[in-house]
Amino acid sequence: MASRTAEIRERPKASPAAAIGLSRWVDQHISWFFILPAVLFLTAVLAFPIVYTALLSLFRWSGAAATPPAWVGLRNYADVFAGDPGFRNAIFVTAYFTGVSLLIEVTLGVGLAQLLNREFLGKGIARTLLILPVAGTPVALALVWRHMYNPSNGIFTWFAEVLRLPPQRWLADATTVIPSLILFDVWQWTPLIMLITLAGLVSLPADIYEAAEIDGASPWQAFWRITLPLVRPTIVAATMLRFMDSVKTFDQIYVSTQGGPGIASQTLNLYVFDQAFQYLHFGYASALLVVLFFVILAGNVVLASVRRGQA
Amino acid sequence: MIWESRGTRQAGISRRILFYSALILVLVVFIFPFFWMAFNSFKTHEKILEYPPAFVFAPTLDNFKNVLWQSDVVQYTRNSVLIAFGSLGVGMILGLPAAYGIARYGHRKLALGILVCRMIPGISFLVPWFIVFRALGLLDTFTGLVIAHLVITVPLITWIMIGFFEEVPVELEEAARIDGCSRAGVFLRIALPLVRPGLVSAGILALIFTWNSFLFPLILAGVKTKTLPVLVYSFMTFDYLDLGGVYAASTLVTLPVIVMVLLVQRQFIRGLTLGGVKG
Q1: Which of A98, B2, B214, B255 satisfies CB 3.0 to 4.6 Å to B229 for a cystine?
Q2: Burial status of residue B140 (CB atoms within 10 A of its CB: 0-12, 13-18, 19 or more)
Q3: Residues of chain B contacting A273 with CB distance shorter than 8 Å
Q4: Pairing of strands A70-71, A59-60
């Protein structure tokens, strides 16, 4: 008993100075210990694939373990840009889909935010309900939309008939498939733009509007001259966010059309998917991925410069 | 708004009626597909095929019975739950210290680096992952799928929690330091308990995103590890045989998400914008 207490009393002296030094060193550099695990993990699972993809884009490979990749230099890139019709189509489809849906979503989202920026009965419920399209499982939503668009018994076909519109073939027709997908996308994502903008509107000071009213400004003028310039940074941020996700859209298109009819709705994303996992052109798919990466980077640089120009 | 005070009382009432009609219209448009999903899941296959669409019918539970008993839905649900909670748990272990480190000690550039994960399309990891996972025997394993989904949960948890850690008063942490607490101890004993509400919403968001994920399991999962969205997708093959099953499966996979959204509400927007907006 006595010896044990002595041992405990001894302990601080007995532990080597190096250990104290180490624990103090750890404590001083603790911020790195907090951050490094996450950063190292993400670097491993992200940076590695990026380097690997860049390398693989210089080879031709079917992905079979038995046949090693064959070096082709820049030929994959030459093929991409020298008039691969699939690639040109994918660029067009992606630009069409992303551009138009972004434009509609931002306009509609800001308008709806302006509409809902007031106190009203059931505001909380309305906000929750509007989150649902954004949160719902995309595969399930795409299956429902796919059937709503069914030319022979979908409810949209019936709506079109009730409204005396000419009969539509929606997803089944090469000319209407992208507008139909855009409508789906607008339905799903306008609420997000709206809720982000609403959060920006709420934080605007009320006294500016009082001053504007005293100066005889109409609500319309107040919206264009005061509200819009003040929430513009929020809107641009929401647009950038939406742009990044819009280019990434996969589940919705893959489930509802698989890129069809033909290749009429094959975005860059789906084209890469097909090249890799349908035709097993891993080298070519890698070259496409590098191009896709630069497309996204370029889009973001453009949007970022818009943001800076207006800040 | 202020301008509304100008008009007469009657004009105010008619304006209010106009506003509520517009609101109801907007809500109906955005909720309709969910309604239609649930509504059709109670119809027989033949009833769903009817044109014009049937609004009055004898509801049946057969679709749900078929989905629950004639497919492997129970196993797929278990897979989905395992993968969602696995990537949530590991995501927390990696993401929470990172968020705290960024909130307290700076490292904003690293924070932006973590954000880049959000920018890159999933398909760009998928090609190299598929090749490497195959070589390492990680295809069709829970380990492989959890690793894949960490790319979603780690940035998400980190970015949401940065905001919550920043709201913890520094004075509390300094007091603990003076009392002899190490920096790691401050994180574990002072900061973490204080951000518990944030933990709940970040956790639920991570669960929603992993639950909804389709592209990763489509390629990386196999017979053993397929998740619910992949199963729901496979129902599409029976489009012309069993639309009731398609609708019932869609309803079943969406239901937990709706429950989770009701639990987090505002935090959801914060999560989607990765902390960019305090909704």
Answers
A1: B214
A2: middle
A3: 123
A4: antiparallel
Task: Kindly tell me the number of DSSP H helices and DSSP E strands found in chain A.
Answer: 16, 2
Integer CA distances (angstroms), A25 to A20, B98, B183, in order: 8, 19, 11
End-of-domain residue from the set B42, B62, B82 = B62
Helices (H), A136-170: 138-148, 155-162
Domain boundary among B33, B62, B91: B62
- Residues pairing with A70 in the sheet: A60
Using an 8 Å CB-CB cutoff, list chain B residues near A167. none
Is B278 within a domain?
no
Q: What angle do CA B69, B72, B73 make, to 5 degrees?
A: 80
When the candidates are 3.90.78.10, 3.40.50.720, 1.10.3720.10, 3.30.1460.10, the CATH number that belongs to A85-310 is 1.10.3720.10
Which residues are bridge partners to A178 per DSSP? none
- 8 Å CB contact between A110 and B17: no
Contact A187 B33 (CB under 8 A): yes
Any idea where the domains of chain A sit in the sequence?
17-45, 85-310
Inter-chain contact B187–A34, Cβ cutoff 8 Å? yes
Confirm if B278 and B164 have CB atoms less than 8 A apart: no
AA letter at A251: D
- Decide if B1 touches A, using CB distance below 8 A: yes
Domain span at B9: 2-62
Counting residues of chain A whose pLDDT is more than 90, the rounded percentage is 26
pLDDT tens per residue, range B20-67: 999 999 999 999 999 999 999 999 888 888 888 888 888 888 889 888
Element housing A212 (H / E): helix A206-214
**How far is it, in rounded angstroms, from Cα A255 to Cα A233?**
34
Kindly state whether residues B37 and B135 are assigned to the same domain.
no
Tokens standing for A144? 């429902």
Which chain B residues touch A35 with a CB distance below 8 Å?
A: 97-98, 101-102, 105, 107, 110
Burial of A116 (0-12, 13-18, 19+ CB in 10 A): buried
Distance CA A106, CA B23 (A): 18
CB A170 within 8 A of CB A151: yes
Same domain? For B149 and B219 the reply is: yes
pLDDT in tens, A33-42: 888 888 888 8
Taking the Cβ of residue A33 and every Cβ of chain B, the question of whether any pair is shorter than 8 Å is answered with yes
Q: How many CB atoms are closer than 10 A to CB B171?
A: 8
- Supply A193's token pair: 């733009």
Q: What is the pTM of this model?
A: 0.87
Q: Assign residue B228 the CATH number of its domain.
A: 1.10.3720.10
Q: Are residues B236 and B265 in the same domain?
A: yes
Lowest-confidence segment of A77-86, A156-165, B31-40 by average pLDDT: A77-86
| Among B122, B257, B276, beta carbon nearest to A135 | B257
The residue ranking higher by pLDDT, B73 or A183, is A183
Yes or no: say if A155 and B232 are a contact pair by the CB < 8 Å rule.
no
B277 within domain boundaries: no
User: B22-44 burial, b if ≥16 CB within 10 A, otherwise e?
Assistant: ebeebeeebeebbebbbbbbbbb
